[in-house]
């Protein structure tokens, strides 16, 4: 699922984990300004593939929070173990969390 204003994206892993990645807080009000989708609804994506480009300064200049929650939306089927100490910046290829089927 790709939100029309491009501030959030939902993906489902091959194992069935449903994730919501929400860039910033209250960024829906930017109406897509500063965001560019790099994938389309229904695309199959791979590890390391870029999904969305965004301009962090647009978010900051609007006075909005830049933290980006990553949420397992089917928590009835999976639990998450956070890896590392947060807040921090995650680089491509690094684990953010490990999901385990309940």
UniProtKB/TrEMBL annotation:
Pfam families reported for this sequence: PTS_EIIA_1
Entry EC no(s): 2.7.1.-
Residue ranges occupied by any PTS EIIA type-1 domain in the UniProt entry: 1-74
GO MF terms, alphabetically ordered: kinase activity
Annotated keywords: Kinase, Phosphotransferase system, Sugar transport, Transferase, Transport
UniProt keyword RNA-binding present: no
Coiled coil: none
Biological process annotations from GO: phosphoenolpyruvate-dependent sugar phosphotransferase system
InterPro entries: Dup_hybrid_motif, PTS_EIIA_1_perm, PTS_EIIA_component
Gene Ontology cellular-component terms listed: cytoplasm
Protein name: Glucose-specific phosphotransferase enzyme IIA component
Top-level enzyme category: transferase
Localization, UniProt: Cytoplasm
Record flagged with keyword Kinase: yes
Name of the encoding gene: crr
